[in-house]
Amino acid sequence: MKVGVLSGGGDAPGINAVIRAVVRKGIRNYGYEMIGIKDGWRGLVEAAYTPLNLEAISGLLPRGGSILGTSRTNPFKCEGGPQQVLNNVRENSIAAVVVIGGDDTLGVAHKMGEIGLPCVGVPKTIDNDLGLTDYTFGFHTAVHIACEAIDRLHTTAEAHHRVIILEVMGRYTGWIALEAGIAGGADIILIPEEPFEIDEVCKFIEQRLESGKTFSLVVVAEGSKPKGAKKIVYGTGVDEFGHPRLGGVGYYLGKEIERCTGIDTRVVVLGHLQRGGSPTAYDRVLATRYGIAAIDLVYNGQFGQMVALRGNKIVSVPLKDVIGKRKTVDLELYEIAKIFSG
Ligand code: F6P
């Protein structure tokens, strides 16, 4: 039996560790022929493949990015796309596909499943915004990198008596900002789940100054916005799933804080540094466990399912229950963060 693997959407540290686990168990335990599908769903629209044997997965565990490439291609956005995918799968005798992705990529897997393509899902995104799983792989690495950035920014902010703002990713949720902010001891954490009042942010920084703290560290998630305002975007376009490019809230805050408080302020946008490079040990283990569980789902014919983490156990959940239901931050955790503000 031939089994395909694809990774779609933004990359996340650990994709290659998933591929390694899926392929190794697929070949060694189940005797499958494994095939890599290039650049996410685009590879199934355009029939672009690469063989995945044991040699191809050697040395993959610590490697960032995706050896298969990735894209935000949505076959349902191109004329005849879904049928093209089904034709290509049939012509190449691909019996099932392991789909590594976030909400968009897994949404396509769910829809393709409904029209006859057997798929299983693996939850991938640094944003950690997928429902029914405690964690997506890649998130832990992003938090680790953001925390290190906060540590470094702290020392320079303190030395120069400045406000430094760190803008992190996360799309419409504040998971990275919140966990990295707590871990790094940020003074203010701003998340999309709770729009902010700029006057309150400035007042808070001034109070710190009055109490003798001559610097402040602000962590802001890219999807955060002032109360009553529209989300702040980098450009006007949207991707094939309708998402705008977020970004710019850090600079907005920087200008406002400097204007209101008169304190010298700097802005750092962490950007794709959070997504690139080697996964943490935690993400390597999680990705490996997910990969093994995903190929087991294929072996057991449990299609239309996604592997997930619940507590410390790997379980499977229906893709249809995951799609389109954003997992927002735990507000109890946000309350904990607020205790350390100031
Ligand atoms: O969903 C992952 C993510 O990294 C978001 O945090 C971010 O908004 C987006 O992808 C950026 O994607 P790209 O720059 O690859 O289009």
Structure report:
The protein has 2 domains: 2-137 and 279-322, 3-Layer(aba) Sandwich (Rossmann fold); 141-276, 3-Layer(aba) Sandwich (Rossmann fold), CATH 3.40.50. The mean pLDDT is 97. Helix 1 (15-28) links the parallel strand 1 (2-7) and strand 2 (33-37). 38% of the residues lie in helices and 20% in strands. The chain has 342 residues and is of the alpha/beta class. The protein is elongated. It contains 11 helices and 13 strands. Helix 1 runs parallel beside helix 9, helix 5 packs across helix 6 and helix 7 (198-210) crosses helix 8. A 7-stranded mixed sheet has the order 3-2-1-4-5-12-13, with helices on both faces. The protein binds 6-O-phosphono-beta-D-fructofuranose. Residues 10, 102, 125-127, 169-171, 222, 246, 275 line the site of 6-O-phosphono-beta-D-fructofuranose (F6P).
Task: Detail the poorly predicted runs.
Answer: none
**Strand and helix order:** EHEHEHEHEHEHEHEEEHEHEEHH
What proportion of the residues form beta strands (DSSP E)? 15-25%
CATH class of the largest domain: Alpha Beta
Sheet with the most strands? 7 strands, mixed
- Strands of the widest sheet, in order across it, are 3-2-1-4-5-12-13
Radius of gyration: 21 Å
Structural class per helix/strand content?
alpha/beta
The average pLDDT value, as a whole number, equals 97
How many domains? The number is 2
Any idea what the shape is? elongated
CATH topology-level fold name of the largest domain: Rossmann fold
Query: How many runs of DSSP E, i.e. beta strands?
Result: 13
